[in-house]
């Protein structure tokens, strides 16, 4: 009997076809609407494999309904949407899609940094709204990137890719990470600091750490207060890492210069959210990994992981390797 698989969103057809070759597939076939909780609750009871996105919250309550589930393949590098401990206790393999999206996500992180520093969105609106009457000396002036200090919080794959870009722009690079990385420091010519020093000395503070209880509200009122008045905050990681109320206040009262966000505490962010009233915020709808090529690769990679696990092979990227040796 073929294993049963549920896919929680309409995927690129190549990935679906690949899974269909050896599995019985059911799929939530809408592209722009996440699967409703009650549908997922029903589907998860029977299946052997689940292919999901970061929009699905796979908490313990839901996992307790999964009687046959062997693998959750998440089409994302972040997996804070999954209760990994509960999955591990139930012997369910969890896989994610790192590496393929590293450079693409570093690109958008740098793009947000540049757009925010040089007020690109505001300037574009200014032109389109007919406000451009003449060239004038201080019109739409922003912040320099060349020669500035960037502080990277979280020196993982994306953090390193960001450091390389910053080097290319002649920036001075600081980083803060749970562990100091001596080799990388030498290789990239970057400097380790504590969080407080990084916040005080950086012109750009860039958040690239995974979301966990330890990083929840890592940037809140006190941290924003430590930052320079001219500093810019960029977050392309997960919304919960930055406290949005505190950020709103800091931006509104010009305690910091600007922010660029690709991620939010609640996604999609409500159009009534106070942050969206601010001119010194550049906001994008969680598109960090959204190049065509990378998203196709992520979809394919997550399909491979699912099939590997159902085949009793170890997926190329596994979040909870412990379970593999114990479960299969
Ligand atoms: C996107 O945010 C991801 O985690 O892949
Ligand atoms: C994510 O892949 C990271 O390690 O930065």
TrEMBL record:
CDD domains registered for this protein in UniProt: GDH (cd05301)
Pfam families: 2-Hacid_dh (PF00389), 2-Hacid_dh_C (PF02826)
D-isomer specific 2-hydroxyacid dehydrogenase NAD-binding domain mapped to chain residues: 110-288
Keyword Transmembrane appears in the UniProt entry: no
UniProt keyword annotation of Ribonucleoprotein present: no
Domain named D-isomer specific 2-hydroxyacid dehydrogenase catalytic: residues: 5-320
GO MF terms held by the record: glyoxylate reductase (NADPH) activity; hydroxypyruvate reductase [NAD(P)H] activity; NAD binding
Domain of life assignment: Bacteria
CC per GO annotation: cytosol
Record key words, sorted: NAD, Oxidoreductase, Plasmid
Family of this protein: Belongs to the D-isomer specific 2-hydroxyacid dehydrogenase family.
Name the record gives this protein: D-isomer specific 2-hydroxyacid dehydrogenase
Species classification: Bacteria, Bacillati, Bacillota, Bacilli, Bacillales
């Amino acid at each position: 009997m073929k294993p049963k698989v549920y896919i929680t969103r309409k995927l690129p057809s190549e990935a679906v076809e690949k899974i269909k070759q050896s599995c019985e597939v059911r799929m939530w076939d809408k592209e722009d609407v996440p699967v409703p909780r009650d549908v997922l609750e029903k589907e998860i009871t029977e299946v052997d494999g689940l292919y999901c996105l970061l929009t699905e919250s796979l908490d313990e309550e839901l996992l307790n309904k999964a009687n046959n589930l062997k693998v959750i393949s998440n089409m994302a590098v972040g997996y804070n949407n999954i209760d990994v401990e509960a999955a591990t206790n139930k012997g369910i393999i969890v896989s994610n899609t790192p590496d393929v999206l590293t450079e693409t996500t570093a690109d958008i992180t740098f793009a947000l940094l540049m757009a925010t520093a040089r007020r690109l969105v505001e300037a574009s609106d200014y032109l389109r709204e007919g406000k451009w009457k003449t060239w004038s000396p201080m019109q739409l002036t922003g912040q320099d990137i060349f020669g500035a200090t960037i502080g990277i919080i979280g020196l993982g794959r994306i953090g390193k890719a960001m450091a390389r870009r910053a080097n290319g722009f002649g920036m001075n690079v600081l980083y803060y990470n749970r562990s100091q990385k001596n080799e990388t420091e030498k290789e990239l010519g970057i400097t380790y600091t504590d969080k407080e020093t990084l916040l005080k000395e950086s012109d750009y503070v860039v958040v690239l750490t995974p979301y966990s209880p330890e990083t929840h509200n890592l940037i809140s009122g006190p941290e924003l207060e430590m930052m320079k008045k001219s500093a810019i905050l960029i977050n392309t990681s997960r919304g919960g890492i930055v406290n949005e109320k505190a950020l709103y206040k800091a931006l509104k009262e010009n305690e910091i210069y600007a922010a660029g966000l690709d991620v939010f505490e609640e996604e999609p962010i409500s159009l009534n959210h106070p942050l969206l009233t601010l001119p010194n915020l550049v906001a994008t709808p969680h598109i960090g990994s959204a190049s065509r090529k990378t998203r196709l690769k992520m979809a394919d990679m997550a399909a491979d992981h699912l099939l590997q696990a159902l085949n009793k092979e170890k997926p190329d990227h596994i979040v909870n390797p412990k379970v593999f040796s114990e479960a299969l």
